[in-house]
């Protein structure tokens, strides 16, 4: 996976045909900003080196944008939208292009997955699955827009026709995170262009390459220049105009709660439409009557998939009191056996965290738990090179070379004892275990959070499962499963997990205006004003 020059051999953007213009146009520095159909360097000439979190190898160098670049992109997106070059294309044709993107991603699946794994350090196998999910999201919105009908309203009068037309919102500013880089982008880009909008996307600064590949694909498919625009760079330095600039009609954000609040505050000044997909502290409720093996296995998947860097991670396990000891013994035993490794390590079950800084943050939650006297039943520390051939190593990946953190199970938690780590989103391989006595208490604990993203319940009693579903103030609920989602089904947050929905039918409506047209077929003079 590495070579003598410390370059990642998984993905090399400089030799990737789709990105040839990024390097050709860039001369001494790459030109990774995609504005008006052209690859451009950052105006101030800034660059950023992208490294693979699994082993520190260099993936590539990209342009580091500042506000001026973002404003230039917004100007192009505005002019393109106002020209009508895309919004006037019949919906079904726009849908065909969106489906074309799905086809291109499938055609280039290995390339896209390699880029995603190189940037994030996640298993190549997992990235391949992500690419299928991403293509499915483009398929969904491409198909949906082709079948969407306006709505006829019955006005209750023979001489009046009333209808609802769908129109694009206009220029959409998009800001996305690093955990599922292209998936989060797809949930926004697919409905936005299907609906006829133009957009400026700011991809997370650590994971730019799949968004760059996506821009190249839109160009190849003939999406008019200026519809799709990409900025690569860090949030505060280049992201602000997407929520403040008056030429942006809507801002769609996926990321952390604090950034989401800032974006919502900024957007209020020009009353933009705001869509927020934020964090979660997701309860996984396990009743004593659950199928034990199913519950344990899915709880491990919920907590440790992608090393817990998943907004919907089941990081808060609630287990019925009578099952606690048996559950914890088996759960911690298996957590202690989880194998860590890099993207192409065929024995690895999950990978590294995204950065040293993020690993520090995760470690901080565990330190807090330790200080409060909670019991750390597995993990509880960063992995080192010495772990490479140990319990958590495969022998293939040097665990000291990447940002690995051992899967961590925390028991002995008292939620009434000022333990913030029980409520905060660690966004890493850290799970807490609490107990409950009955359905009411399970619900009380599960809803005792500012978040409301996902939750799960494991039981063989269907009635009990439905009662729990009804009581949970979270948006996506799994019964006897964890993590699957469907592009046809809405995704989003209750409470401080967000305020919009992605996917499903609502995920398209978010990017549309609904215009009411009232047509009087027999116009009359009313004579109310000024006729004396
Ligand atoms: P983050 O908020 O730090 O960053 C997200 C994006 O916002 C990045 O692109 C970043 O550069 C940008 N940003 C930061 N400051 C900005 C500013 N002032 N203006 C404009 N952009 C700015 O979050 P993160 O650490 O990258 O992502 C992790 C978070 O994302 C977690 O809380 C996770 O739960 C959440 N998330 C939610 C969902 C969901 O569907 N609800 C999905 C994935 C991730």
UniProtKB/TrEMBL annotation:
Leader sequence residues: none
Active site per database record: 277
UniProt superkingdom: Bacteria
Molecular-function GO term, any one: oxidoreductase activity, acting on the aldehyde or oxo group of donors, NAD or NADP as acceptor
Keywords linked to the UniProt accession: NAD, Oxidoreductase
Kinase found in the keyword field: no
Pfam families, per the entry: Aldedh (PF00171)
Aldehyde dehydrogenase domain sequence ranges: 39-517
Record flagged with keyword NAD: yes
Annotated metabolic or biological route of this protein: Amine and polyamine biosynthesis; betaine biosynthesis via choline pathway; betaine from betaine aldehyde: step 1/1
Entry-linked InterPro entries: Ald_DH/histidinol_DH (IPR016161), Ald_DH_C (IPR016163), Ald_DH_CS_CYS (IPR016160), Ald_DH_CS_GLU (IPR029510), Ald_DH_N (IPR016162), Aldehyde_DH_dom (IPR015590)
Family: Belongs to the aldehyde dehydrogenase family.
The protein's name in its UniProt record: Aldehyde dehydrogenase family protein
